[in-house]
Amino acid sequence: MNEFVNIALPKGRLGEKVYEMFAASGYRCPELENPDRRLTFENKEAGVRYFCVKPSDVAIYVEKGAADIGVAGKDILLEYKPDVYELLDVGLGKCRMCVAAPKNFRDDNRRTLRVATKFVHTAKEHFSRTGREIDIIKLNGSIELAPILGLSDVIVDIVETGTTLKQNGLVVIDTLFDISARLIANKSGYRFKREKINEIKTKLETCKENKDDKNS
């Protein structure tokens, strides 16, 4: 296992874009481009081994050492605070963490604010800073439904284009922070594979800069 740098990629559209960056940086893995029932994919010449997991699980695999490096959203890192090194903003998956509510929402400080979200710690930290008393309603999907059906007053969720909010009569009332995907590393793995991991980081950084130049 030590001859490879083990890389956790997020499944889905973000993972596809992340892999494209790795491939463009010299770490292409043809096996991953035509996947079968295997769960790991190797490029022995490049010294990398890939595996794909749920986006929210990438940080766990890296923190626990099953992966040396991985790419996870800043939202995940701020919500779960894994003990990892954050090496690089790869510039993908850009969006925002926001508080949203129905268009006619008016906050009443005399009662507890009901907040629906899957980002429980993020929501608690935000409203703690504002001093607002809240009741968290943890949901794992279709967060926008909560205020529509009267389950919550507001939601805390990721907003990319805002189209889903608009279609459901919701508007952003506060932006907590910007989000993008980050290259992270296991602390122990980084010590033992520092040279190789830094090489990957540098090549990804160059790839990102080249993409930024083309888009400017």
Order of helices and strands: EHHEEHEHEEEHEHEHEEHH
Which spans of ≥5 residues are poorly predicted at pLDDT below 50?
Answer: none
How would you sum up the major sheet? 6 strands, mixed
CA-CA gap between termini: 41 Å
- Order of strands in the sheet with most strands: 2-3-1-4-11-5
Mean pLDDT: 94
Cα shape: elongated
Give the beta-strand count: 11
Fraction of residues in helices? 25-40%
- Strand percentage lies at 25-35%
| SSE-based structural type | alpha/beta
Number of helices: 9
Instruction: Please tell me how large the radius of gyration is.
Output: 20 Å
Keywords:
six-stranded mixed β-sheet; five-stranded mixed β-sheet; alpha/beta; elongated; 11 strands; 9 helices
Secondary-structure blueprint:
Blueprint: E1 5-10, H1 13-27, H2 30-33, E2 41-43, E3 48-53, H3 58-63, E4 69-73, H4 74-80, E5 85-89, E6 95-102, E7 113-117, H5 120-130, E8 134-138, H6 145-148, E9 154-159, H7 163-167, E10 170-179, E11 181-185, H8 187-192, H9 194-215
Parallel strand pairs: 1-3, 1-4, 7-8, 7-9
Antiparallel strand pairs: 2-3, 4-11, 5-11, 6-9, 6-10
Polypeptide structure, described:
The chain is 37% helix and 30% strand. A hairpin with a 4-residue loop joins strand 2 and strand 3 (48-53). The protein is elongated and about 65 Å long. A 6-stranded mixed beta sheet has the order 2-3-1-4-11-5. It has a 5-stranded mixed beta sheet with strand order 8-7-9-6-10. It has 216 residues and is an alpha/beta fold.
Question: What's this model, at a glance?
Answer:
The chain has 216 residues and is an alpha/beta fold. The chain is built from nine helices and eleven strands.
